[in-house]
Amino acid sequence: MTPAQPLDVWIGAGVLALLGLGAALLLLLGEGAAISRSILLRFARIALPVALLLGLPLLVLSRLADLEDRLWQALIAGLVIALGWLTTTMFAETGRARDKAEKLRDYHKALFAEIRDTLAAFYSEGQGDAQAAQLVARMEADESFVPFIPNEVHDRVYAALLDEIEVLPRQTIDAVVAYYSLIASIRALAEDMRSDRFAQLPQGRRILIYQDYVQMRQRAYQLGSYALALIDGYAKGGAPGAEAVTRRFSSPDVGRNARSPGSESAG
Questions:
Q1: Least buried of 73, 102, 165, 194, by fewest C-beta within 10 Å?
Q2: pLDDT by residue (tens digit) across 238-255?
């Protein structure tokens, strides 16, 4: 080696050490530690074979003969570039994961608020079943009575988020989609019950359709309560928290009194 060569090597080694230390701190202490480890593993799958194919021969050659200064400088520069790319990728992926987590929290909060308000409207502070029974009794007593079904819209938030619904985690997305699918079916049935064709049906047929309508709203209440519990569990404990809620529910068919619409809160 020439006298200048050790200085270049030490400078390169110092830069590599600083980059390596920064990557290690990000890997072990950063909020995206799991993401950093995943990137490092992918990088290692590519870098290790290359290092074995090129690094070992160069190491043997360096023991047998003096290598040119430019070769050492090129090797150090290559390592600096590789470590720089690795660190930059870790920060970029961590940032994307943080943005996705923030978006997920916002989506969960918005859906939670809409579902809770809808369940409050369906349940009417415990009066929903009584009101439905009174309406059916009036239909039975008066053959000409046709109930007025309001045009309710309970999926504006969901419709706005539908294009990015994949942001939701697997622990909550199934329950949310199932709930809003039923809400869409209820709205379609309500539209049919507001039509002239419904008014022309025999009263017995109208009663059966109305009872189906009430049962669908009851089912929506149960599914909505389950979705609220999952969102709340995810907000408080992440994926394990939501999975714990799933284990507590033997099925989405939770009793009407198991959970009130305002008993949970998304964080």
A1: 102
A2: 889 999 999 888 554 544
